[in-house]
Inverse folding.
């Protein structure tokens, strides 16, 4: 395990967390959170102490299983736990942390992220370092774990956190229990709280769940009507959906951008217009379940593997649903990228630019260049192999390049170097297709937080 170079103050390279057990109580009207986190894992190098990320909340009691001499100390970003004696590499640990406070977003170079109060409820948007605003954790993308999350809150509110097991009334409140059995990084764990109505929708063999404010019912049902067909197209293109279900939350509030979480997506009321005007965003967030959530990045520098793939999925859906072809989309975005500054390295954009929209769109055009180079059969065979081989794990750009060469039998180093390492925009490989470039309807922002 390593600390990520883009978020060097987050995480602890000395540990791997296997499981989080979170027991939380939250009062919506006062924004008061009380919790106990039991964190189980293994020490990966000999150490006397370990640390967890925790921001804006105060730990009141820390116990280490089997170690009565353990102590703890907290700073504004870290909770340091010191063992009674050094622990060798390979030794397991279980740390119980009681904590409380008024959770709020943290300020970062990417804006404010984490636990955020809505007009009437809560939104959690943790990418990339917002998880510590609501639970102590090892906040790096490479450290995936399983979760048990119990949240008690006011009975009038619905809680959505993925993997719902039960909801039990408890004296004017309700206790919600969730289990995330698939390995999940901290930034994809969420808790959405609001006055939501709920309906179930079959998405082929996948169970779909819609949560939304009742007044938005007609718009939500209209805009998400294509979701079952979208799921079928993506399973054909990318391989089987990697989770048991897929939940969608639509908030009553407007949001800057939609958000993905493990087996879930969150949209603002402004993203749902009732006529499918932002259908590409629905495709984008669904695609993240394969690219970014099941197959995760081992390091933030490779974020194009998440966002470039999700953007390309938008084009796959457009082509499959009667809109402009992926080739036409690629031509249109290539022309737009050509008119923008060429000062960004797609495969290593740096922390300040990791959410720049050029990473997203050039990443997608990179995939189309690969498709033109190796052909459709090899390209979609590669995507199937990628989502199967690294399912539930993390991977790097080097892993993708190696697999692309394995599947296609071609030497692709020069192509990937030009698109991912060089800053100049390469031309697309020649094609016999005659599609005209599709107009780019969405504004391409030079710096976009996702």
């Amino acid at each position: 395990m390593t600390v990520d170079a883009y978020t060097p103050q987050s995480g602890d390279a000395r540990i791997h967390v296997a499981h989080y057990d979170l027991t939380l109580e939250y009062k919506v009207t006062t924004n008061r959170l009380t919790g106990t986190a039991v964190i189980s894992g293994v020490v990966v190098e000999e150490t006397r102490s370990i640390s967890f990320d925790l921001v804006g909340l105060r730990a009141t009691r820390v116990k280490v299983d089997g170690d009565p001499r353990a102590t703890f100390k907290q700073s504004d970003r870290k909770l340091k736990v010191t063992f009674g004696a050094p622990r060798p590499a390979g030794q397991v640990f279980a740390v119980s942390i009681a904590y409380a406070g008024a959770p709020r977003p943290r300020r970062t170079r990417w804006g404010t992220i984490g636990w955020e109060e809505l007009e009437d409820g809560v939104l959690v948007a943790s990418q990339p370092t917002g998880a510590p605003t609501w639970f102590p954790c090892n906040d790096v993308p490479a450290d995936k774990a399983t979760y048990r999350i119990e949240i008690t809150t006011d009975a009038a509110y619905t809680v959505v956190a993925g993997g719902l097991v039960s909801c039990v009334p408890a004296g004017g409140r309700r206790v919600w229990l969730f289990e995330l059995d698939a390995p999940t990084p901290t930034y994809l764990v969420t808790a959405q709280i609001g006055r939501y109505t709920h309906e179930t929708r079959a998405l082929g063999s996948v169970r779909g769940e819609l949560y939304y404010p009742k007044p938005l019912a007609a718009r939500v049902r209209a805009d998400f009507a294509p979701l079952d067909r979208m799921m079928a197209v993506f399973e054909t293109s990318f391989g089987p959906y990697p989770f048991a279900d897929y939940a969608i939350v639509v908030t009553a509030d407007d949001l800057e951008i939609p958000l993905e979480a493990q087996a879930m997506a969150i949209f603002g009321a402004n993203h749902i217009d009732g006529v499918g005007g932002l259908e590409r965003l629905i495709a984008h967030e669904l695609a993240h379940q394969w690219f970014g959530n099941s197959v995760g990045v081992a390091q933030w520098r490779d974020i194009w593997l998440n966002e470039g793939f999700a953007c390309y999925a938008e084009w796959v859906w457009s082509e499959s649903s009667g809109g402009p072809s992926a080739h036409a989309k690629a031509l249109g975005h290539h022309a737009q990228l050509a008119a923008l500054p060429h000062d960004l390295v797609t495969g290593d954009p740096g922390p300040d630019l990791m959410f720049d929209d050029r990473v997203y769109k050039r990443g997608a055009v990179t995939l189309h260049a690969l498709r033109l180079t190796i052909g459709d059969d090899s390209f979609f065979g590669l995507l199937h192999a990628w989502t199967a081989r690294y399912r539930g794990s993390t991977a790097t750009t080097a892993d993708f390049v190696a697999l692309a060469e394995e599947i296609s039998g071609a030497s692709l180093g020069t192509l990937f170097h030009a698109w991912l390492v060089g800053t100049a925009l390469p031309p697309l490989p020649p094609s016999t297709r005659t599609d005209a470039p599709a107009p780019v309807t969405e504004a391409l922002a030079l710096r976009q937080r996702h």
Remarks:
- The first strand starts at residue 15 and ends at 27.
- Residues 152 and 175 are 4 Å apart (CA to CA).
